[in-house]
C-alpha cells in the first residue's frame, strides 16, 4: 500500500486521525443513505402504514405496493367479490382483501420496457457514432479540431426545454413524435457528445505504435482500427456505454415534454401513480426501487471511471 | 430471356457482390476519407437534433408564433419578444430565484464536498467502499429523487419532517418543507446538496490525489504548520479542480428542471419558480412560443457567455 511514490507516504496521517476521519465519513454516508433505504422500505408497506404518524420503522411487510404498481384495480361490492370463483393466486387474494379486483395490467411494465428499448437503442447508436468520431479526433489531423470538439461539448449547455419546442414541431412534421425512434435519436444526440469526449480520452491512451505495427504487418488503417484499437478500447467503450445508458435511463425533461403515452419512459410515470385518495406511495416506492436497481449495480461497476464520466473525460484518474 | 426472370438474378448477384466490393473499397480508404467518414455521422446528428432546433428557436424568437395554433403561421415581430422578456418582472423574479438556488446549493456542496474529500484522503480503512456509497445519490434520476423527497417532505407523516421535529423539538404539524413560503426554496437547496455534494467531493478528491508528495515533504522541512500547508499547498493545488466542479454544477443548476418540477413545480406561489419552470409554463402551458423562444435564447447566451468567461479564469488559475 505505501510504496515510496504513493501520495502522502511521508505525511501519513496518524491512526487516530484516520479513525476520526473514517467515523465522520461513515456517518455522512449512512445519513445520506437514509432517504434511499426509507423509499425501499416504503415499497413493502401498506398504503396505511406508509402515511402513518409517527413514521413506522417496524411494520408488517406487504407486497401490495408492487401489486398496485403492476396492475390497475377496480373497487367492487363485497357481494360481487363473494360471487367470484375463489382467487387462485396470492396477488388476487391480496387485492380482493382490499375489496378490489384486478382489472388489468398497469402501464408501468410498458414504460419500463420503453425505458429499456430507448436506453439501449440510444446507447448503442451513441457509442457507435462516438467511437468512430473519437478515433478520428484522436488519430488524424481534423481541420478545426478544437472548435469541433468544443461545439460537440457546447450542445450540452442548452436547457432541454429551450429546444423542446422546435423538436416537438419538427417531430410532428416527420411523424417521429412519441415514437421509440424519435426518442432514441434525441437521446443519441445528447449522448454522442459525452461518448466522443470520453472515448477520445480512452483512445488517446492506447499507444499509436500498436496500430503502426499492425499496419507494417500489412493491415490497412481500417483493419488496424477494427482489429487492434477497438479491442484495446473495450473497457473504455463499456464504461462509456454505461454512462450513456444511465443518462437515457434517468432523463425526464424531454420524456415528459415530447412523449404522451406510447413511447413514454418510466421517470415521468413513477411520480403520477395515484391510488385511492391520493398518491399511492408504496406503489411509487416500489416503482422507484425497481428503477434504481440498475443504477446501483452500474454505479458499483463504474466506480473507477466515475470521475471521468461525470467530468466529460476532462479529468482522469 | 425476359425481364421478370432477369431481375432476381441481378438482385442475387448484387447481394453477393456488395460486401466484397465494400470491403475492397474500405481497404483502400485514405486517412482523410476515414476522418470524414468517421466524424460526419456524429456531427450530422448533432446538427439535425441540436443546431437545427436551436436555429429554429432563434427564428421563432422573432415571431409571434403559437405552437398550439400552428395553422395561423408566424408573423415577424422583430425584437418585441426580447423587449417584453426583459421588461417582465416575473422573469427577473425567476432569475433571482434561480440565482439564490445556484449560489446556496453550490456553496453548501463545495464546503461539504471539500471537507469530505479531505477526510477521505486520510485513507482510513474501508475508504473506497464508503466513497462508493457516498457517490450513489448523484447517479440517480433527478426526477425520481424529486419524487421520493416529496414523500420524505410530507407534512406529518414525512420522515424528514418527523426527524427535524425530533431533533429540534418543534411541533411537526407546525411546518411543511415544500408547502411553506419561507422553507420551500431551502427544501430544494437541501435536496440538491444531498444529491450533488458527492460530485464536488469526487472532483476534489481527484485534485487532492494529484498533489505530489514532494511538495508536502518540502513544507515539512520548512516546518510549515498544518494550517499553513492547507492554505499554501492544498487549497491552491485543488483550486482548478474546484473551479471545474463549480462550472459544471452551475451550468447544470442553472437549467435545473426535473427536480424542481417534481418537488414544488414552482410553488408555493412563485417562490421556487426557477427559470426552467417559467420557460416550461410559457412554452407548454401558455403556448407563447415566440416569447419563450426569446427567453430560451437569452438563457443560452447567459450560460454560454458566463461559461466562457469562467473557463478563461480557470485557465488563468491553471497556468499560474
Unreliable spans of chain B are 1-5
What is the share of helical residues of chain A? 55-70%
Rg of chain B, Cα atoms, Å: 28 Å
Number of strands of chain A: 4
Oligomer: heterodimer
User: Major β-sheet of chain B, in short?
Assistant: none
Walk me through this protein's architecture.
With 317 residues, chain A is mainly alpha-helical. Chain A has 16 helices and four strands. In chain A, the strands form two sheets. In chain A, strands 1-2 form a two-stranded antiparallel ribbon. In chain A, strand 3 and strand 4 form a beta hairpin. The N terminus of chain A is likely disordered. Chain B is globular and about 75 Å long. At the A-B interface, helix 1, helix 6, helix 7, helix 8 and helix 9 of A face helix 2, helix 4, helix 5, helix 6 and helix 8 of B.
In brief:
The complex is a heterodimer of chains A (317) and B (320). Chain A is mainly alpha-helical and 317 residues long. Chain A has helices at 15-42, 47-50, 64-70, 78-83, 90-97, 108-139, 145-154, 160-174, 180-204, 208-216, 221-232, 234-250, 253-258, 266-269, 281-302, 306-310; strands spanning 71-75, 100-105, 274-275, 278-279.
Describe the structure using short key phrases:
heterodimer, A: 317 residues, mainly alpha, two-stranded antiparallel ribbon, 16 helices, 4 strands, globular, disordered N terminus, B: 320 residues, 13 helices
Helices and strands in order, then pairings?
The complex is a heterodimer of chains A (317) and B (320).
Chain A: H1 15-42, H2 47-50, H3 64-70, E1 71-75, H4 78-83, H5 90-97, E2 100-105, H6 108-139, H7 145-154, H8 160-174, H9 180-204, H10 208-216, H11 221-232, H12 234-250, H13 253-258, H14 266-269, E3 274-275, E4 278-279, H15 281-302, H16 306-310
Chain B: H1 3-27, H2 31-60, H3 80-87, H4 89-120, H5 127-135, H6 142-152, H7 159-168, H8 184-209, H9 213-221, H10 226-254, H11 258-263, H12 275-285, H13 289-318
Amino acid at each position: 500500500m505505501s510504496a515510496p511514490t504513493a501520495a502522502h507516504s511521508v505525511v501519513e496521517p496518524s491512526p487516530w486521525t484516520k479513525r476520526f476521519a473514517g467515523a465522520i465519513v461513515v456517518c455522512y454516508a449512512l445519513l445520506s443513505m437514509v432517504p434511499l433505504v426509507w423509499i425501499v422500505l416504503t415499497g413493502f408497506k401498506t398504503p396505511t402504514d406508509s402515511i402513518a404518524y409517527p413514521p413506522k420503522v417496524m411494520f408488517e411487510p406487504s407486497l401490495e405496493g408492487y401489486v398496485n404498481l403492476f396492475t390497475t384495480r377496480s373497487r367492487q361490492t363485497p357481494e360481487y367479490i363473494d360471487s367470484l370463483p375463489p382467487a387462485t393466486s396470492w396477488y388476487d387474494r391480496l387485492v380482493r382483501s382490499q375489496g378490489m379486483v384486478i382489472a388489468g395490467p398497469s402501464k408501468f411494465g410498458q414504460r419500463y420496457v420503453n425505458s429499456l428499448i430507448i436506453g439501449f437503442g440510444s446507447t448503442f447508436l451513441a457509442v457507435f457514432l462516438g467511437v468512430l468520431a473519437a478515433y478520428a479526433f484522436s488519430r488524424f489531423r481534423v481541420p478545426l479540431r478544437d472548435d469541433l470538439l468544443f461545439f460537440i461539448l457546447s450542445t450540452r449547455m442548452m436547457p432541454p426545454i429551450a429546444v423542446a419546442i422546435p423538436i416537438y414541431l419538427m417531430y410532428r412534421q416527420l411523424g417521429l413524435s412519441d415514437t421509440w425512434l424519435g426518442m432514441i435519436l434525441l437521446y443519441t444526440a445528447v449522448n454522442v457528445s459525452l461518448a466522443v469526449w470520453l472515448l477520445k480520452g480512452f483512445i488517446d491512451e492506447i499507444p499509436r505504435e500498436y496500430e503502426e505495427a499492425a499496419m507494417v504487418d500489412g493491415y490497412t488503417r481500417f483493419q488496424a482500427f477494427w482489429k487492434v484499437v477497438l479491442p484495446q478500447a473495450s473497457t473504455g467503450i463499456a464504461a462509456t456505454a454505461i454512462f450513456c445508458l444511465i443518462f437515457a435511463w434517468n432523463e425526464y425533461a424531454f420524456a415528459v415534454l415530447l412523449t404522451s403515452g406510447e413511447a413514454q419512459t418510466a421517470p415521468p410515470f413513477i411520480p403520477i401513480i395515484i391510488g385511492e385518495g391520493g398518491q399511492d406511495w408504496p406503489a411509487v416506492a416500489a416503482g422507484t426501487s425497481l428503477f434504481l436497481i440498475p443504477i446501483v449495480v452500474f454505479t458499483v461497476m463504474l466506480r473507477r471511471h466515475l470521475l471521468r464520466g461525470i467530468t466529460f473525460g476532462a479529468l482522469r484518474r | 430471356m425476359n425481364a421478370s426472370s432477369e431481375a432476381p438474378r441481378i438482385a442475387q448477384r448484387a447481394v453477393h457482390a456488395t460486401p466484397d466490393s465494400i470491403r475492397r473499397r474500405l481497404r483502400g480508404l485514405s486517412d482523410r476519407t476515414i476522418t470524414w467518414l468517421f466524424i460526419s455521422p456524429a456531427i450530422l446528428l448533432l446538427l439535425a437534433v441540436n443546431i437545427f432546433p436551436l436555429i429554429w428557436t432563434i427564428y421563432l424568437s422573432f415571431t409571434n408564433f403559437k405552437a398550439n395554433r400552428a395553422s395561423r403561421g408566424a408573423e415577424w415581430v422583430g425584437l418585441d419578444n426580447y423587449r417584453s422578456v426583459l421588461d417582465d418582472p416575473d422573469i427577473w423574479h425567476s432569475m433571482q430565484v434561480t440565482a439564490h438556488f445556484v449560489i446556496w446549493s453550490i456553496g453548501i456542496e463545495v464546503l461539504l464536498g471539500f471537507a469530505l474529500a479531505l477526510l477521505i484522503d486520510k485513507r482510513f480503512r474501508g475508504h473506497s467502499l464508503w466513497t462508493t456509497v457516498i457517490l450513489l445519490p448523484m447517479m440517480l434520476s433527478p426526477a425520481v429523487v424529486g419524487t421520493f423527497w416529496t414523500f420524505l417532505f410530507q407534512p406529518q407523516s414525512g420522515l424528514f419532517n418527523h426527524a427535524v421535529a425530533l431533533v429540534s423539538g418543534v411541533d411537526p404539524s407546525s411546518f411543511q418543507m415544500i408547502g411553506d413560503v419561507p422553507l420551500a426554496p431551502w427544501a430544494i437547496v437541501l435536496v440538491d446538496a444531498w444529491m450533488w455534494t458527492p460530485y464536488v467531493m469526487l472532483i476534489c478528491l481527484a485534485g487532492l490525489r494529484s498533489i505530489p508528495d514532494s511538495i508536502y515533504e518540502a513544507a515539512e522541512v520548512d516546518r510549515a504548520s498544518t494550517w499553513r500547508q492547507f492554505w499554501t499547498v492544498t487549497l491552491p493545488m485543488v483550486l482548478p479542480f474546484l473551479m471545474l466542479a463549480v462550472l459544471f454544477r452551475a451550468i447544470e443548476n442553472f437549467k435545473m428542471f426535473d427536480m424542481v418540477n417534481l418537488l414544488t413545480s414552482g410553488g408555493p406561489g412563485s417562490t421556487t419558480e426557477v427559470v426552467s419552470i417559467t420557460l416550461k409554463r410559457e412554452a407548454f402551458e401558455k403556448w407563447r412560443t415566440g416569447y419563450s423562444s426569446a427567453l430560451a435564447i437569452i438563457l443560452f447566451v447567459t450560460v454560454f457567455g458566463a461559461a466562457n468567461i469562467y473557463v478563461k479564469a480557470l485557465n488563468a488559475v491553471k497556468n499560474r
